[in-house]
C-alpha cells in the first residue's frame, strides 16, 4: 500500500490524456488499491489515475456517505444504491446518457473550490473491473456525476473547465495568483477573495 501524491491545478500533467489499459497486470491491480487508499485518505469520493500522474484510464470511486460527509444515505438514489461500491473501473466509457442535472462539484486537484456544474442525469457505463471482467451498469445521482467528473480527468479535463468562460477564467487566474488556502491560516476561499478585493 502506498499513498500517492495528488497533482493540483495548474500542474500541466493534469492535462495529459490517459491511454486504455490493455491488460490488468498485478502491478495495475496494486495501483488500483493505492488509488482507492489515496482517495480515502484525502476524503475524496473519486480519484482518477491522471490526478496521481499516471496516464492510464483507471478511476476509483466511492460515493457512499461517510463520516462528516455533506451527503446522506437518504440522498442516494435507488439506482445509485444498487451499484456495488467502492469500485475501480478500467477503461470506463459512457455508452448512454440522458437528462441534465447540476451539482456543486469539488476536486482533490482543485482543493477548497466548489462550483455548480451541469452533467448528464442518468448514464450507462461500460468498463472492466479489477479482475478484467466487463461490467455494465446504469446509474444516476452523485455516482453518475462523479463518474463523469472522473472520466473528464482521463481526458485531461477539470470541472473548472466546465463553467462559463468568464467564471472559469476568473477561478483559474485566482488560483494561479494566490495558490490554495493554507488550512493553518485561511478558513476558506472567502479569505482569499477578501485579499483580492482589497487589492483591486
Ligand atoms: Ni476531480
Overview of this protein structure:
Helix content is 30%, strand content 23%. The chain folds into two domains: 12-163, Alpha-Beta Complex (Peptide Deformylase); 165-200, no CATH class. A five-stranded antiparallel β-sheet has the order 1-2-3-4-5. It has 200 residues and is α+β, with helices and mostly antiparallel strands. The termini are far apart. The mean pLDDT is 91. It is globular, with a radius of gyration of 17 Å. The protein is built from five helices and five strands. Nickel (II) ion is lined by residues 107-109, 149, 153.
Sheet with the most strands: spatial strand order: 1-2-3-4-5
Structural class: alpha+beta
| Number of helical segments with 4 or more residues | 5
CATH architecture classification of the largest domain: Alpha-Beta Complex
Rg to the nearest angstrom? 17 Å
Largest sheet geometry: 5 strands, antiparallel
Order of helices and strands: HEEHEEEHHH
Helix content: 25-40%
Distance between the termini: 47 Å
In CATH, the homologous superfamily of the largest domain goes by the name Peptide deformylase
How much of the sequence lies in strands comes to: 15-25%
Arithmetic mean of pLDDT: 91
CATH fold group of the largest domain: Peptide Deformylase
What's the structural domain tally?
Answer: 2
Listed once per kind, the bound small molecules are: nickel (II) ion
Q: Which word captures the global form? A: globular
Q: State the total count of DSSP E strands.
A: 5
CATH class placement of the largest domain:
Alpha Beta
Low-confidence stretches: none
Amino acid at each position: 500500500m502506498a499513498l500517492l501524491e495528488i497533482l493540483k491545478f495548474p500542474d500541466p500533467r493534469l492535462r495529459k490524456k490517459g491511454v486504455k489499459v490493455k491488460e490488468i497486470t498485478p502491478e495495475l491491480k496494486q495501483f488500483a488499491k493505492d488509488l482507492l487508499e489515496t482517495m480515502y485518505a484525502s476524503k475524496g469520493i473519486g480519484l482518477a489515475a491522471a490526478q496521481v500522474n499516471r496516464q492510464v484510464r483507471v478511476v476509483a470511486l466511492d460515493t457512499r456517505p461517510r463520516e462528516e460527509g455533506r451527503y446522506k444515505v437518504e440522498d442516494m438514489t435507488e439506482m445509485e444504491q444498487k451499484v456495488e461500491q467502492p469500485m475501480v473501473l478500467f477503461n470506463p466509457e459512457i455508452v448512454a446518457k440522458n437528462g441534465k442535472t447540476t451539482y456543486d462539484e469539488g476536486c482533490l486537484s482543485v482543493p477548497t473550490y466548489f462550483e455548480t456544474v451541469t452533467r448528464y442525469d442518468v448514464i450507462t457505463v461500460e468498463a472492466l473491473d479489477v479482475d478484467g471482467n466487463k461490467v455494465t451498469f446504469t446509474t444516476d445521482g452523485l455516482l453518475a456525476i462523479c463518474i463523469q467528473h472522473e472520466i473528464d480527468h482521463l481526458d485531461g479535463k477539470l470541472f473548472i473547465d466546465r463553467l462559463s468562460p468568464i467564471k472559469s477564467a476568473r477561478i483559474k487566474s485566482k488560483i494561479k495568483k494566490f495558490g490554495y488556502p493554507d488550512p493553518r491560516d485561511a478558513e476558506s476561499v472567502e479569505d482569499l477573495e477578501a485579499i483580492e478585493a482589497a487589492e483591486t
